[in-house]
User: Which sequence fits this backbone?
């Protein structure tokens, strides 16, 4: 770990988004390169909520609740574009919300650690929060346009 790097870093699935220990600092000071990567992590940090909300709105977590699915099966069950669904599932897997089954890059399952959080009706479900935030955001947006 770089001693001049900021100590607070965004994490995904228990790991930092950018592993600065693997970077080659070509001509830049460690502090400048580390700061650039910190800002980059903040910029891409907005992708996670978009992935979760899109998957929730489209019903991905519900479809996957009864077991692993291939992206094309998920797309067919939800009436979605197969390529877009594959991109969405890959994004969710990169954030640790889905896992690939038996090392197959084609078969996805909801990660055990988050399954109860993403399923409506589960004891620790955040489904209500996602729906509430969506309604609140639209009310604010529409009020500003009026």
Assistant:
């Amino acid at each position: 770990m770089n001693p001049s790097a900021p100590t607070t870093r965004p994490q995904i699935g228990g790991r930092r988004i950018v592993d600065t220990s693997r970077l080659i600092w070509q001509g830049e000071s460690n502090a400048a390169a580390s700061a650039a990567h910190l800002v980059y992590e903040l910029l891409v940090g907005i992708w996670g909520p978009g992935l979760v909300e899109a998957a929730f709105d489209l019903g991905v977590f519900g479809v996957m609740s009864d077991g692993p699915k291939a992206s094309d099966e998920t797309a067919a069950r939800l009436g979605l574009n197969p390529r877009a669904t594959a991109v969405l599932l890959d994004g969710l897997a990169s954030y640790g919300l889905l896992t690939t089954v038996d090392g197959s890059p084609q078969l996805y399952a909801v990660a055990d650690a988050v399954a109860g959080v993403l399923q409506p009706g589960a004891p620790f479900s955040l489904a209500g929060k996602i729906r509430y935030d969506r309604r609140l955001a639209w009310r604010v947006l529409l009020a500003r346009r009026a």
Observations:
- Residues 1-12 have pLDDT under 50 and may be disordered.
